[in-house]
Amino acid sequence: MGSENEMFDLVIVGSGGGRLVAALAAADAGLKPVIMKSKH
Q: Phi/psi at 24 (nearest 5 deg)?
């Protein structure tokens, strides 16, 4: 993981394979995505 001050273009929140597909599509479009995962 990066520093606390790292900037992202897209925050993906959710579960399942859809979040990975969304992150890959965003990266292909030139965006810098990050996936947030719940701890429960």
A: -65, -40
Q: Buried b vs exposed e over 17-33: b needs ≥16 C-beta within 10 Å?
A: eebeeebeebeeeeeeb
Q: What is the pLDDT of residues 19-30, one digit of tens each?
A: 999 999 999 999
Residue ranges covered by each domain of the chain: 1-40
pTM assigned to the model: 0.74
> pLDDT at residue 10 above 60?
yes
Kindly provide the residue ranges of all beta strands, DSSP E only, lying in 1-40, ordered along the sequence. 10-13, 33-36
